[in-house]
Amino acid sequence: MVTAEASVTFTPSWLEGQEGAPVFHLRTPGVIARAQMEAELAGQHQAGRVYSFELLAAVREGVLALLAEDEDQGRLLELIDTEMEVGTAAMTDADRRLLAEVKKVLAVNWPAYRDLIAQIERRRELAPLVALRRFCIGIIGAGVTFARAPDGMVSDATLMSIDPQVLLAAGNRAFALAYVSEEERGNSARPSSSGDGQPTSNSDATSTEAGSLTASAGRKTPGSRSRRGSGRS
């Protein structure tokens, strides 16, 4: 079912041209609808925006509190301040690795930083679903019956009938529509498969090092004496 409301159509790039591929009809929300979406994320789901400066401030606090006895504390604080001011591009590979190692330690041992990382992950998972529930006005595709819940949004039964990867791609497109201009809405190219990933915006935390928490970490523990030896360059 598709309503007469103005909409943008979307099909994940890897399904285009296939028989029975789902076609999502997504309305283009205005600023109030966008604010309502963000309010739901921040309030009900505790998944509001997290800014890079918040992450780095939490890292700095953690280094001050947990690495007070570490001989590298001063150097770490300098690196954190540099990242706050100009980013990591000018850093050496060794310095970037050191920051990533410390952030991994803090993600486990420093509650303020750990909570922000958890909030980022909640937003990553929930933002596409919240956007799709709010802004999808119809779906045409094999095995999908479009229905609305009592609150007027897309029903859970409808969402459950869609492949999770397809759901994620459509949700990301719905989220993106809330942050593009009127001209872009009508003329922008459909996202490629590489663009069908997690929702991002310029205001969200985009620190490269924040995304390095899953990389190999050093074996340092808070308060332990550094044994990197040749880590500096």
Concise synopsis of the structure shown:
The chain is mainly α. It has eight helices and three strands.
* Beta-strand segment tally: 3
Residues in helix, %: 40-55%
**Total helical elements:** 8
**Principal-axes shape call:** elongated
Write the layout of secondary structure elements.
Elements: E1 8-10, E2 23-26, H1 31-42, H2 52-66, H3 73-86, H4 93-109, H5 111-135, E3 136-140, H6 156-160, H7 164-177, H8 182-187
Antiparallel strand pairs: 1-2, 2-3
Helix pairs in contact: 2-3, 2-5, 4-5, 5-7
Biased composition (Polar residues): 189-215
Region (Disordered): 185-233
Description:
This protein is mainly α and 233 residues long. The chain folds into two domains: 7-48 and 121-181; 52-118, no CATH class. Helices cover 46% and strands 5% of the residues. It is built from eight helices and three strands. It has helices at 31-42, 52-66, 73-86, 93-109, 111-135, 156-160, 164-177, 182-187; strands at residues 8-10, 23-26, 136-140. Strands 1-2-3 form a three-stranded antiparallel sheet. Helix 4 packs across helix 5 (111-135) and helix 5 (111-135) packs across helix 7 (164-177). Residues 186-233 have low confidence and may be disordered.
